[in-house]
Design a protein that fits this description.
By secondary structure, the chain is an all-alpha fold. The protein has 4 helices and no strands. Helices cover 76% and strands 0% of the residues. α1 packs across α3.
Length: 115
């Protein structure tokens, strides 16, 4: 037979565990949203500076991440920092970014002018 004290502690322990799990999930979601915003900003930088489309921008970041063994978020932060002239891109990252951007560059859409 259980006592009334044991019955009360089980739901409280369950609530405490649920609160902890939800707080962890909330923190993970906040981090994911922040990371997504940073990656989106870096894609915007690549669109503006490297003449590539949005889907290609993500692919460029992904390829640089893989080829330099650097987390995607770190690559995105470095691209943004470089665009804001806060820090130059590290050489391996710069080299891989140039190569990936060339592979994904949009064809020249400027019409030829009569000359």
């Amino acid at each position: 037979m259980t006592t009334s004290r044991e019955k009360r502690s089980a739901p409280r322990a369950l609530r405490d565990a649920t609160v902890i799990r939800l707080e962890q999930e909330n923190a993970q979601l906040r981090h994911a949203v922040g990371s997504h915003a940073t990656v989106d900003q870096a894609i915007g930088v690549l669109i503006a500076t490297r003449r590539i489309g949005p889907a290609a921008g993500f692919e460029v970041l992904r390829e640089v991440s893989q080829h330099t063994n650097t987390k995607l978020l770190e690559v995105a932060e470095a691209v943004i920092g470089s665009a804001l002239r806060r820090q130059p891109l590290p050489e391996p990252m710069s080299r891989e970014l140039d190569a990936a951007a060339r592979r994904h560059a949009c064809p020249d859409s400027t019409p030829d002018l009569p000359g």
